[in-house]
Structures are given as C-alpha cells and as structure tokens.
Amino acid sequence: MTKLSPFKYFKTSPEIIRLAVMLYVRFPLSLRNVEDLLHERGIEVSHETVRFWWHRFGPMFASEIKKRRIEGMRTSHWQWHLDEVFVKINGERHYLWRAVDHEGEVLESFVTKTRDKKAALRFLKKAIRKHGLPEVIVTDRLRSNGAALRDIVAADRQETGRWLNNRAENSHLPFRRRERAMLRFRRMRTLQKFAAVHASVSNHFNQEGHLYSRANFKLNRAAALAEWRLLCST
C-alpha cells in the first residue's frame, strides 16, 4: 500500500514548507521575520501560514530525523549530561529538563512544573526508556537528581563538579535565543512540543565545525541540508 504524502492537499510546494519550518525552528526568528525572508525570495505567505506549517510539520520532521539517527546508531551510552533551566509560562515558573550526550547532541527534553525528586525521576525514566542507561551521568548538585538516581539504582554512575556539566549548560543557549524571539511560551504543551522539535533540528544541523577542517565542515553542512530537503518525501 502506497503511503500518502503529508503534503498531498497543500497548494504550496514541499520545498517551500520545509524552508519555512527550518528558518523558524533553526534560527532565532519570529513568524513575521520568516514571512519577510520568504517575501524577499518571491514567496508570498502570511506569518499565520508559517505558524500552521510549523505546528503541522515540525513534529513530523523531528520524528523522521530521530528515526534516521537511531537507525544510524548515533545515540550514546557512554556519558550523559543532565540539567534543567527555568522557563516562564504566563508568568509562572516551569522547568525544562535536558539530557545531552558527550558530543553535545540533545537526547531528551522534558517540561515539568517542579524540579523535585518526582520530576527528576520521570525525566530519567523517559530518557532511559528511549536511549538506555549510560555508563556516566553528569549532573549539577541538585539533590533531586541524586535521589532519583538512587531510586533507579544508578547512584554509582553519577558525577558532579563545578565545570563538569558545561556541556549541558551550553546546550541551553540556542533554546534561550529562540525563546526570546518567540516572546515566551503560553502553554506547557507548546513548550514541550517546540523543545522536542528544536532539539532534533539542532542535532541535525550541528556540525561541530571547530573539530575538523573547513572543507569537511562544508561537505557535512551540505549533506545535512540535502537530507533535510528530502524529509517526508516518501
């Protein structure tokens, strides 16, 4: 049975939809910024159309990226870095938990209203269920992390230190830039959805250019863009 294309009933070409979603999720741009950039390229769409495309296709693209990366065995069981960051939703403080591997790839994102042992345990169980238990788990000195790791009998794998968790701290920076461009979030569900999609897109285009030559960086960047243009094409 032939799989129905997700773009079947859209008048706009899939290439334009992919471009609009990539611009909005990957870069710190507002919906109207994306509308203006597309207008400069001769593409007339409203910012509300860009919003609809991101809600409709963003999770779909992120899911396909995750599936391809899992098939390519690009998940790490060696070392994870766990951290949480404050996020305001309608003036109320929430917490975005994030698990990052030793290469800086975001493995899991999870939004909670608290950062107690129960929240840390839910986040850990979700990450381990998808990616397995790593050999080393680097955290800050938040007591909730230690208590949750003791519950899953992994306290001996925990490491804490003043600068050990910089990898997780740095992973929050692209999200913070996007948060400012979006003028905050209004619902937990929207935050969870965007954090998951943003993490997958960042992983896909994160080339770690400082680790190898400029020529190899350009080749990898071109390959990532070519792969993006084929998402959901079959």
Separation, N- and C-terminal Cα atoms:
12 Å
The biggest sheet amounts to: 5 strands, mixed
Tell me the structural class: alpha/beta
Fraction of helical residues: 40-55%
Q: Report strand order across the widest sheet.
A: 3-2-1-4-5
Q: What's the CATH C level of the largest domain?
A: Alpha Beta
Average pLDDT taken over every residue? 88
Show unreliable segments: none
Global Rg: 19 Å
Secondary-structure element sequence? HHHEEEHEHEHHH
Shape type: globular
**CATH topology annotation of the largest domain:** Nucleotidyltransferase, domain 5
Number of helices: 8
- CATH architecture title of the largest domain: 2-Layer Sandwich
- In CATH terms, the superfamily of the largest domain is Ribonuclease H-like superfamily/Ribonuclease H
Number of domains: 2
**Range of strand content:** 5-15%
Number of strands: 5
